[in-house]
Amino acid sequence: MNERSEKYQLFIVSDSTGDTAERMALAVLSQFKNVHQIEITKFRYVKTESQIREVVQKAGLQQAFILYTIVSEPLRKFLDQEAARAAIPVVDLIGPLLRQLELYLHKLSSAEPGLLHRVDQQYLQRMDAIQFAVKHDDGQSLHTLTYADIILAGPSRSSKTPLSMYLAQYGWKVANIPLVLNIPPPEQIFRVNQEKVVALMTDFDILIKVRQARVKKLNQFSSMNYADPSYILNELNYCNELYKQNPKWKRVFVAGRAVEEVASDILSLLGLQK
Fold first, then answer.
1. Is 220 contained in some domain?
2. 5 exposed, middle or buried (CB, 10 Å; 0-12, 13-18, 19+)?
3. Which of 11, 118, 136, 206 could bond to 255 as cystine, CB 3.0-4.6 Å?
4. Which residues constitute the domain of residue 19?
């Protein structure tokens, strides 16, 4: 049998973005060797009978194959009927699976378009937030600090980075800024909405143990007062005084508490949700 010399036309019809159907189509088409002349046309957000008629009319003129993902059962039936009248090959990617799952689960589907796309968008938002947290860890990228949803400020080893990464997993863009004794905070922190700044407070005894353990493990800060008790006490006093000078900053105690618990308090104080 001779292959057609003209291009093959594949119409993807969806009540949402059509991205899912396109990925499935490309996955299946990869199984056909030496078939290169395939043109894919997507018809997005098809939600009315008039839109379906228009698509079917175009498919008839171009001898296209229709692949569709539509959650509305009446619209699926209408598209099948219109395609049958025009003798156009058509495949429903979602209808049969919906029907079988409804039987299995003993529940009706919500028939709401775009839910998968919404999940994809949430995933991308989380990835953006995680990248933001990495770029804005430990006082980096201060020129874009204004784009942060949450700004954590506190002394070294007050859980700034773990909190940033944990909150980022829920889509919040978090920056953290270290506060160091006798070094003024970066001026950028005072240029942003002060209601977004969270001042982290910790315990003197616990902070000594944490810093001493870090020095011993990494053999760092040997020439500094990083783990010296008197230095730590002065640093905590400096931080507390700074917090008093900035009453709009939200204060959260972190010592001896789980990251999840502290993060929940932060979101609550800022009026945010997971």
1. yes
2. exposed
3. 206
4. 8-113
Q: Which residue has the higher pLDDT, 131 or 112?
A: 131
- For residue 175, the cross-strand partners are 151
Spatial contact of 124 and 160, defined as CB atoms under 8 Å apart: no
- Dump pLDDT digits (tens) for 199-237: 999 999 999 999 988 888 777 555 568 889 999 999 999
Are 247 and 266 in contact by the 8 Å Cβ rule? The answer is: no
Q: Are residues 139 and 79 in the same domain?
A: no
CA 221 – CA 19 distance, rounded (Å): 52
**CA distances (Å), origin 178, targets 104, 153, 156, 257, 261:** 54, 6, 6, 19, 21
Within-domain flag for 2:
no
- Overall pTM > 0.90: no
Cα separation, 150 vs 37, whole angstroms = 51
| Paired strand residues for 250 | 198
Range 238-262 average pLDDT: 96
H/E segment holding residue 25? helix 19-29
- The residue written with tokens 């000594």 in the block is 208
Is there a contact between 274 and 267 (Cβ–Cβ < 8 Å)?
A: yes
**Residue 113 binned pLDDT confidence (cut-offs 50, 70, 90):** low
Q: For residue 131, what are the contacts with CB-CB under 8 A and spacing of at least 6?
A: none
